[in-house]
Design brief:
2 helices, 38 residues, elongated, mainly alpha, 87% helix
């Protein structure tokens, strides 16, 4: 159970970091990815 939870949290944090990178670099392709992934 905790493994699945940790895996989910890891994926969420990766997505969050990716979307934060979008703000820094303002790359349209990253912006599109973030929009697609919620």
């Amino acid at each position: 159970m905790s493994n699945k939870y940790e895996e989910k949290q890891k994926k969420l944090s990766i997505k969050r970091n990716f979307c934060n990178m979008k703000k820094v670099f303002k790359l349209s392709n990253i912006k599109t990815l973030c929009a697609k992934n919620g």
